[in-house]
Design a protein that fits this description.
Length: 137
């Protein structure tokens, strides 16, 4: 029995195992990013600057693998407008997360921006659930 192969938009074939690995890697990075963001947020708000700073640097280091893992999934979907919307909101969410933490560091009270950041996180997660890849793995 031949292995099932999937074709991306460029016509290249990918096995379901590769696609499943890419999806799992991206979901894992999303979870890691959320854990690091929440941890840094809590430590900064409690005034524990040293551990918060370390976690914040780890979060900054995790941005790139998160972007790369999401970027690798862009070519795998047949629905380009949906994946473009997901990519744009994901990038905006990472930007808002960084700005929000920098506001906390500078002791600036921006409750509207904090609400917008939390809203963008939830909105991006909802888009990830509503607009699946369009591939059955």
């Amino acid at each position: 029995m031949e292995a099932l192969e999937l074709k991306n938009r460029k016509g290249n074939t990918m096995t379901p195992q590769i696609v499943q690995f890419l999806v799992t890697a991206h979901l894992s990075m999303v979870v890691i990013l959320l854990i690091l963001f929440v941890s840094a947020n809590i430590f900064y708000k409690k005034g524990r600057k040293k551990p918060a700073s370390g976690i914040h640097y780890a979060l900054r280091g995790a941005y790139l693998p998160g972007l790369i893992s999401g970027g690798l999934l862009i070519g795998l979907t047949p629905d380009f407008p949906a994946i473009f919307l997901k990519a744009a909101t994901g990038l905006l969410t990472l930007i808002f997360m960084e700005i929000h933490l920098n506001h906390i560091i500078g002791h600036e009270r921006r409750p509207k921006f904090a609400f917008l950041t939390y809203f963008m996180i939830v909105f991006t997660l909802m888009l990830g659930l509503v607009f699946p890849l369009g591939i059955s793995v």
